[in-house]
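To: structure desk
From: M.T.
Subject: fold request, one chain
Message: Could you run this one when you get a chance? Sequence is below, nothing fancy, just the single chain.
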Amino acid sequence: MSREFRHLVSLVLNVVLAVTVVVLVLHKSERATAPSAREVSPEKMTNETPVFTDQPKSPQYTDIASASDRRRWLIDQLRAAGVPNNVLARVALSDLDEGWDKRFEETAEKNHGDADTMAELQQERERDEEAEMRTALGEVGFKLWDQEKQLREANIGKIQLTDSETNAVYDLKKKLQQRQRDLEQARLKGTMDDAEINDASEKAYTEFNQQMKALLGDDRYAKSQGQDDGTPANNLQQELAKVNPNDSQFQDLLKAQQQLNESRSKLDQQFQDDPTNPAYADQIKALDEARDQEYQRVLGSNAFGTLQKAQDDGYSKMKKYENIWGLDDNKVDNVYDAIKYYEKTVQDYQARASALDAQDQSVDWDAVNKNLQQFKEQTQQSLQNYLGQDSFNKMQRNGVFQFNEVPHH
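Reply: Done. Structure tokens follow.
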């Protein structure tokens, strides 16, 4: 939520509070007995500022004990003033978001952006948000707000729905949402492995899409899934949740991602009849590197590093299973750095050899491949010595070491 909206909400709340207090004070003042001449003499009125010992007291926002009660009090005042439900929801969310954003920052700093810790916190945030919004808006207001949010995700093409279709789509979306939460909880607890979770998630989405098609018909369903301007932004927000960029940074990153998507689309069309052409892979790699450089410029090295780790499957596995693999945070980071160093070195070595070959210079590809094979074996041996045979084997069986296969020219 933007700072501008939060600032506007703050101004609105201040005005509402001020008006409420004034009304209450005036109402009670009308019933209060006027002070006697003995209490306020003409001399005191002339020479001193009068002191009202029985000044009326109004309900104080700061006296309300819990944040939840204060939020409910504010929403009640706005509702009484005739403020629409969607505005009430935005006010309540603004208050919630500020507190949660601060908690995310503190947790990320304390736990070094640990993927599972942040995922658990995100689940807690979603549960807390629903509970607080239900309390603030009431059951009817909550369903209106939640239904609008769920339909926005399910009906990105914004097709017209009847009341019965709206309720049916909402029920399907809530069922899918709960299934996703259950699977994420299973992943965090380690009761299902990644392959099982992926299969179950794919099955849940397939069932959801089939039910949507049965409800809307093929044509209307296809239209409902059409791309709109908000979809790429929503996807990117989820990807960047671990680094929590500000509004300005997010817009720069969204622009970089959109440029990458447009360029890749053009390349796909250009090489659609020859997708194995080495030039295609080289240009895709160049686009990804340009995007990463822009991300690093916008976010800074530390936040960009956190983002890369959060998106790296091997790093996530090491953090998740570090206790049963005999690792600690220091070993996880060292292994991650070693793997990234290996990948970067191989890429640079291959690129230099390919550049010489493109310039019609003689390249001994057998020697290139031999050197790469030796470097791969040396890196594996170094990691094995560092980790110990047992830990190394466990990590290798779980696909942590994705060493590039040595190419044959």
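Reply (cont.): Confidence is low (pLDDT under 50) at residues 1-62. Let me know if you need anything else for the meeting.
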